Each structure stands twice: as C-alpha cells, then as structure tokens.
C-alpha cells in the first residue's frame, strides 16, 4: 500500500466543475492512510478485466478460476492477435471467454450472463477482431454500450489488443462530443465502431456511418441497453443492419426486456450462464445504521481506519455528489467527483486520472456503475443506499474485479431499512452489521495470507 504525500492546500470550490477537488491532506490515519491525496507511488495501470490472476495468493471466485484449462492458442487465432492478447497480460482465457470465443468465432448468436469483472470485454473483442477482414474498408463490427466512459474503456482495450494486426481501425463515438469530428473520422476507413446508442443512430440516419456491411453487433450491459431508456433506439438501430448478422448479448442480469429482445432478433442463440448467484463472491458486505447527520462523520471514520487502495463512494443525485465531495475535501482528503451533468471533457479527465491512480477517492452517481474496470478499487461505499437490487449489484461490482477482494459498506438510515431487507431478499444475500473490527484479509490482497491482523473501528 502506498503512502500519501503531503501537498499544499488548494482553494475549495466547485466553480470549475472539473470534478477534481483537493483539500489539505491529512497524514495517513490508519495502515495505508485512508483517503489521502495523490500517491507518490501510484497503483499500477489497471489491466482489463480478463486478466487471470496467476500466482496470486488470494483465492478468487469460481467464475474467474473454474476454467477448463484452455489456452488462447487453442482457438487458432491470428498470430498478431495473440501477440496483443499476451501483451495485455491475459495469460489464459477466463470461463466466460472459454465459453464465448469458440461459439462467437463460429458466427452463432450468443446470450451470455456473467458477473462484472470476469472478462466479458475480452470474450467478445477477441472473436470480433479475429473476424475483421482488413481487405475491406467498411464498418464490420459494432459494440454498443450504455455510457461514454465504458465506450472509451472498451475502445482502448480494443486498440491495444489489435495493435499488431496491421491496420485495424477502431473508433469510439459517444454523445456529448463533437459530431463534426466523428463525421470527418468516418470519411476514412473504420472497421470497428464502439458507441453509445444515440450517437451511432444519429450518424447512421445522417448517412455518415454505413452499417450495411456489419457482420457482428455486441450489446455490452445488455440489460441497460434494452431498458426503457434505450430499447426503441436499439430496435431502430437493428433495422439498418443486414438480416444476416451476428448478435452477442452480455450482461450480469437479464430481465424480461432482454428475453423479449432475444425472441425477436436472435437466431437460436447459444446461452451461457455463469451466474450461480447474483452477488459477487469476494466482496464482503456490511451496513452501518446511522442518521443522515451522522453519515459524514461515519465516512470520516472509515477513511481514517480502513486500508483503502482506491474507493468509490455513491450518492443518489448529482447535487449530493458535489456537496459530499466538498465535505470530503474539507475533512482533508483529496477526492474526485463525476456525474452526468458535468461537461464531457471534465468527465473524461476525471475517469482517466482516477483510473491512473492520481487520487484515492471518487464520489459519483450511478453513471459509474456499469462495466468500469478499475482493479485498484478495493472499497465501495454507498453513502446513499440504492432502491433497486440491480443498482446495488452493479455498484458493489466496482470492487472485487476479476477475483480481487473487495469491501462494500452501506450507510443505512431509518428510511432505508425496507430497501435493505428487500435487496437482501432479491439478491439472496446477507448484508451484515458492520463489526467492531474488520479483518484486512477480507479486502486487502497483501494481508490475505497473513493471519490475525484486523482494523479496529
């Protein structure tokens, strides 16, 4: 665990709306220093979620370790693609990749259910890239995701994996960015487009994005894409594609909307279900019963006594995100914040800097719940408890990525008590009262093989 360095106080305020706030940093309060400012030793760059934790002493959940023993070489992939895979540090395919890759390579539709952080991005990007024909200068594959941040993350992984393939052109396009830039980019060759639904549909309707040659479309976080917010756009988008196309659906949950879409558009899909239970193994869940006025004090105690590598703190509104970020900086801890009402360039900068370890704490809304893969995050705090089990599942999935350990702490008020009980029943899990001591081996990797050390609260 890196230690926090001291830094000069910076004037507090939200006038810049850039999501990056810094207070005068307290010395580390507990082992590892709780909140803290930018570290002198930053966490290592985050590897994508399909990295296998070979040699890690901590036991990972079965959804990332119960493999069949296959190797990436077994799938007869192009040598150049294999080079990119191994340079990413992906040593062996995870279970979702073992199930998906050979089926996707055969051209069959897939309906895949797997937890966040188990390698879904690699499960569809690898066969997608293998099937790209560089002799054609048309768009051959679409990856549709619900948020801008996830689009940027997936496109970066795609670019890195394909960098030896001799000219695969990958483009990310999302709302909130300059449409003219996207139009100019599509004048050139593009093979893979990773997009949010509204923007790609806009480009198609304008005749700029030609999708008649698309042979594969991926819906990542399909439950969100097929919710009421997006389903009409997805139906319209598919109407522009050729009838003979391959559809891959990936998500942690599959409500009735997904079943209806599958029945309408997928041709005898191969179904993959690696979800023995909804809640993430490897994430220890606690609640602290507090009043609204006690929440900030409780958060301060957690910061000073837990060993936090990086934390994500969830609020239920953009206004509360900004207010809490200001409070945290006043307490002396540096934090970033992010929500949907910020300008896109500021959101991009916050996401990039937090992912690269420039700050330990991020306050955010549910904008940040889906598919964002930051393995350094080992603590998630629900400052405001969510109302829906699906929201809770995706929030706590920010820790415990790909078999890493994680800790989820929920601040529960009197008004939240029925939601707490309902989510426990819906997800078939138990959220326990926070104990007087939390064993560091539950959420800090380097303590997992050591015995007896606990954090006193």
UniProtKB/TrEMBL annotation:
Query: Pfam families in the record, alphabetically?
Result: DEAD, Helicase_C
The reaction(s) annotated as catalysed by this protein in its Swiss-Prot or TrEMBL entry are: ATP + H2O = ADP + phosphate + H(+)
The protein's superkingdom reads Eukaryota
Region annotation (Disordered) ranges? 1-67
Q: What top-level class of enzyme does the UniProt entry assign?
A: hydrolase
Give the motif span (Q motif): 70-98
Annotated Gene Ontology cellular component terms: P-body
Q: Which family does it belong to?
A: Belongs to the DEAD box helicase family. DDX6/DHH1 subfamily.
Q: What is this protein called?
A: RNA helicase
Gene source species: Cyprinus carpio carpio
């Amino acid at each position: 665990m890196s230690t926090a360095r001291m830094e000069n106080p910076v004037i507090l305020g939200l006038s810049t709306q850039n999501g990056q706030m810094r207070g005068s940093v307290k010395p580390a309060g507990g082992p590892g220093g709780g909140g803290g400012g930018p570290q002198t030793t930053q966490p290592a760059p985050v590897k994508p979620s399909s990295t296998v934790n070979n040699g890690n002493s901590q036991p990972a959940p079965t959804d990332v370790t119960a493999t069949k023993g296959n190797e990436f070489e077994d799938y007869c992939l192009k040598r150049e693609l294999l080079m990119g895979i191994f340079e990413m540090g992906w040593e062996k395919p995870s279970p979702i990749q073992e199930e998906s890759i050979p089926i996707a390579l055969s051209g069959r539709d897939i309906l895949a259910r797997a937890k966040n952080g188990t390698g879904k991005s690699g499960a569809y990007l690898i066969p997608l890239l293998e099937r790209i024909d560089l002799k054609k200068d048309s768009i051959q594959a679409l990856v549709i995701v619900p948020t801008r941040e996830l689009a940027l993350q997936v496109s970066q992984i795609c670019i890195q994996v394909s960098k030896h393939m001799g000219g695969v052109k990958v483009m990310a396009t999302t709302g909130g960015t300059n449409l003219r830039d996207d139009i100019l980019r599509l004048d050139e060759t593009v093979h893979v487009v990773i997009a949010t639904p509204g923007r790609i549909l806009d480009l198609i309707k304008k005749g700029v994005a030609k999708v008649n040659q698309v042979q594969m479309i991926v819906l990542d976080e399909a439950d969100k894409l097929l919710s009421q917010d997006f389903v009409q756009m997805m139906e319209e988008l598919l109407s522009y594609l050729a009838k003979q196309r391959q559809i891959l659906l990936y998500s942690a949950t599959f409500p009735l909307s997904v079943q209806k879409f599958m029945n309408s558009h997928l041709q005898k899909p191969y179904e993959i279900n690696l979800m023995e239970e909804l809640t993430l193994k490897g994430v220890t869940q606690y609640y602290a019963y507090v009043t609204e006025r006690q929440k900030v004090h409780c958060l301060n105690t957690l910061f000073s006594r837990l060993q936090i590598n990086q934390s994500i703190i969830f609020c239920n509104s953009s206004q509360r995100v900004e207010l809490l970020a200001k409070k945290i900086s006043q307490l002396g801890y540096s934090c970033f914040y992010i929500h949907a009402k910020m300008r896109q360039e500021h959101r991009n900068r916050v996401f990039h800097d937090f992912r690269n370890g420039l700050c330990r704490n991020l306050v955010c809304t549910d904008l940040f719940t889906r598919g964002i893969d930051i393995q350094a995050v080992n603590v998630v705090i629900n400052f405001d408890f969510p109302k829906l089990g699906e929201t809770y599942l995706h929030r706590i999935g920010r820790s415990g990525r790909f078999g890493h350990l994680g800790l989820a702490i929920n601040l529960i008020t009197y008004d939240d008590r029925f939601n707490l009980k309902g989510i426990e029943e819906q997800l078939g899990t138990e959220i326990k009262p926070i104990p007087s001591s939390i064993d560091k081996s539950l959420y800090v990797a380097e303590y997992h093989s050591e015995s007896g050390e606990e954090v006193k609260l």
